[in-house]
Amino acid sequence: MRRTREDHSAKIIDRVRELLGRELPPDLEEFYRERIARIGDFDAVFPHWNARVGWRPMATEVTELAHVNAVPLFNDGCGNLFGLDLLSENTAPAVYFFDHEFGFEKPEYAAGSALGPFLLLAQHDQAIQEGRAPSWELAVDPDIDKCPRAPPIWLAG
User: Fold this and answer.
1) Is the dihedral of CA 10, 13, 19, 23 positive or negative?
2) What domains can be seen in the chain, in order of their start residue?
3) Residue 40 — very low, low, confident or very high, per pLDDT cuts 50/70/90?
């Protein structure tokens, strides 16, 4: 895991709240406060502040998944996004995988039942290299198969 050098989390939280036009889930605010810039092969998606020029335009903006009620957390380096569900009201929001080849129309599979378990599951490429059995994710995230908007990867087809 790599973190940002400077802490602009308060500005980022305010900016994302402004761009999405809504309050943010506490998990998302905490994620921004942790200043995670990269985990494994995944780059974090968040507004970048520069004191000299202000907000810098990004290849992927935090509004990229607004049409499907999600906010991007990470890109996978191939154009796909992992996004936090914004439809959850009384539970911790799940993290879903959104495929760019389908225009980010809907979540393709559940990548974590909440943000914390997703961060532990970000070792997906390593799991493939090690030849872990399908549904190994259940050992790390026992609720991943209960996400409401999409099935876990081994059931997604």
Assistant:
1) negative
2) 2-156 (3.40.1580)
3) confident
54's enclosing H/E stretch is strand 54-56
Long-range contacts formed by 119-122: CB under 8 A, 24+ apart: 119/36, 119/39, 122/39, 122/40, 122/42, 122/74
Rounded CA gap, 78 and 74, in Å? 11
Distant-in-sequence, close-in-space partners of 85: CB < 8 Å, separation ≥ 6: 69, 70, 93, 94, 95, 96, 107, 147, 149
Tell me whether strands 109-112 and 95-98 are parallel, antiparallel or unpaired.
Answer: antiparallel
The two three-digit tokens of residue 14, written as one number: 């305010």
Q: Three-state DSSP class for 73?
A: strand
Query: Are the beta carbons of 72 and 123 closer than 8 angstroms?
Result: no
pLDDT band at 61 (very low <50, low <70, confident <90, very high): confident
Sorted by sequence, the CB contacts under 8 Å of residue 112 that are 6+ apart come out as: 94, 95, 118, 119, 120, 121, 141, 144
Contacts of 99 (CB under 8 A, 6+ apart): 80, 108
Q: How many CB atoms lie within 10 A of CB 42?
A: 20
Q: What is the pLDDT of residue 127?
A: 73
pLDDT tops 90 at residue 52: no
